[in-house]
Amino acid sequence: AIQRADHGFKEIGARDRVGSALGSTTILDGGVTPLTVGIKIERRVLGAAVFRGARLIDTLRRHLPSAKAGARSAVASALTWLTEQYPEATVGIETLDVPDSRRAELVELAKTILREQGIALWELTVREVLESYGLPDAPARQICRATAKQLWPSLSTGTNSDLISDAALLGYGVQVRKCLAAVDEREEATGS
Q1: Using the 8-state DSSP alphabet, how is residue 24 labeled?
Q2: pLDDT at 97
Q3: First vs last Cα of the chain: how many Å apart?
Q4: C-alpha–C-alpha distance, residues 159 and 164, integer Å
Q5: Is-contact 108 96, C-beta < 8 A?
Q6: Among residues 5, 102, 3, which one has the least CA distance to residue 44?
Q7: Is residue 48 a contact partner of residue 33, using CB atoms and an 8 Å limit?
Q8: pTM for this predicted structure
Q9: Which residue from 160, 156, 177, 180 is spatially nearest to 40, judged by alpha carbons?
């Protein structure tokens, strides 16, 4: 079953000043606040975090059965639900360097499903996610998770909070990269 975390998300306020500037709608598309979904898949669970601009608006945790067919079906079901709820969203997914693993197989399945549905997809490695936050070394993941839980306190509660924090870091990292890419495109177009 799909579990949603309904924690009454609200704007963070002063601690989210930078995020609010990065989520500016005029940079990207002239007024419509962009949606971004960050997805992290582990062996037995899928986690997702949904952003509208800089605001975390939803999370999803989906248990993946131990049987291969069941896990594949659960991933497909969760992605279908996400794309039905947020059809205009860009999706960021964490990719793996280890190609022959259950996780890698499920990530590849997810990428295939999203591409078949015509969803804009960004693929980032763990290293790229950490570099988005200026911390490329090994202990940085724990530091980033702690930061995510400070920015979005609702991530501190419930099961799999580290998984959902990783998905949020990924989603927000993609959101920032989208903004920076849009600025680069504008500058190239205007010759600035």
Answers
A1: -
A2: 76
A3: 50
A4: 9
A5: no
A6: 102
A7: no
A8: 0.76
A9: 160
